[in-house]
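Q: What does the predicted 3D structure of Acyl-CoA thioesterase II look like?
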Amino acid sequence: MAALSWIAELLQFDRSGDDFCIREPRRGGTERLFGGLIAAQSLGAAGATVDDGKLPQSLHAYFVRGGRYDADVEFHVDRIRDGRAFATRHVTASQGGKVILEMIASFHHPEPGLEWSPDAPPKLEFDAAAPKHNVLDFGDKFDLRTMPSDDSEFAISPFWIRAQSEIEDDALIRACTLTFMSDLGPVPSALPPTVPLRSDLGFAASLDHSVWFHRPFLPHGWHRYELQSANHNDSRGLARGSLYDAAGALIASVSQEALWRIPT
């Protein structure tokens, strides 16, 4: 039997009906759970209750409180609707009886229709990007190429990204990979463009996160991820993002609001 990919390993649940459990997401860790991880696992739990023919269409998640790596995560899935073309699921992720994430996810059976997306020339050409290492929050699972001037510990948009290793040819697992990856850039992008990013700038955390899945995602291929700040007020910043494949096709759209408490 072939070894599971790293993301498939993270989606290995103990299951009882529509209740799922991950036993200690990463043993020995003490820092706050990465939002992309818990969102990907929530989508995986939701997808496990959906007919094989329906694929992830979108997800909308709220990060209710910070999670930990040293405690089991429990996922309860409510089957909101099962229609001929669409299925809707509500997922509650908890640790120690306290909710850490709420998600609504929609799944759609592919069907023929119009095909269009806007032309979007790269804001950073692949050949002009430089390899980057030591990015926070599971950056070691991906190859990244960023602006040569980016010396931060984050992935600063625009950047190019791909999975370092092969991911199973499974639409749900690959959608979970995209969900995981999509949380690597929005928080720094939620700052106003006039504010330089520094490691000691202030406290930051993801508040909510949305993904729309447009086209099939091939994790081992290079993709460019472009995010921009859309608004900032009340210590909250909104970032909007687009993920394109190397040919320029729009693969997914992302939005996230982040909390930025910056001392004044």
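A (community wiki): The structure tokens above were generated from the sequence. The longest helix spans residues 35-47. Residues 6-261 form a domain with the Porin fold (CATH 2.40.160.210).
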